[in-house]
Design a protein that fits this description.
single chain, alpha+beta, 8 strands, Aminopeptidase, 175 residues, globular
Length: 175
């Protein structure tokens, strides 16, 4: 298991726009702060992440992000180094065989376009690879052009979702 998942010590990341992030696994104590964070994510991005238009996330929506097993599921929080503010959330959830893992990322509205999503996607993909996952996927609304473009630039390939034409699965396979 990778050091970030086992030690809870923050990992430092530098985005392409020179924003320094400290990333660590979430804990149950983070639920109130995570709720406030999602209040600062745009309505559209919250809808893309949770496929719901709720203005505020409920305890039932937040709990799976802070109470994880740290083996099949890991939830990461990214804090801006200078201010200590939570600016991004990333989830990595693998199937029982650890063959495929899904990633989901949210970035606070005022930190979009600063490379935070790029850096967090790299971290999640690398964590999945280190855990032996062979394929990483992201399920996106076809309207989420920014996420789809980012994932394509990072080597993810789009595939249609047969049962739902409003969604697309982007996947990246590790060799």
């Amino acid at each position: 298991m990778n050091a970030i998942a086992s030690a809870n010590a923050p990992v430092s990341l530098l985005t392409r726009e020179s924003v320094r992030l400290n990333v660590r696994p979430a804990t149950p104590d983070d639920e109130p702060e995570l709720g406030r964070f999602f209040d600062k994510v745009s309505d559209e991005d919250r809808r893309f992440r949770f496929f719901t238009a709720a203005a505020h996330l409920s305890h039932e929506q937040l709990e799976p992000l802070v109470k994880v097993d740290h083996l099949q599921v890991e939830s990461f929080l990214a804090f801006e180094d200078l201010t200590g503010q939570l600016v991004a959330s990333g989830l990595l959830a693998s199937d029982r065989a650890s063959d495929t893992a899904e990633v989901a990322i949210s970035v606070r509205a005022d930190y979009r376009g600063k490379g935070v999503g790029w850096a967090l996607l790299d971290l999640l993909a690398e964590e999945a690879r280190k855990r032996g996952v062979r394929r990483v996927i992201s399920i996106e609304s076809r309207d989420n052009h920014a996420a789809i473009e980012l994932e394509r630039e990072k080597g993810f390939e789009p595939q249609p979702v047969e049962d739902d034409p409003t969604l697309v699965i982007l996947s990246k396979t590790f060799r």
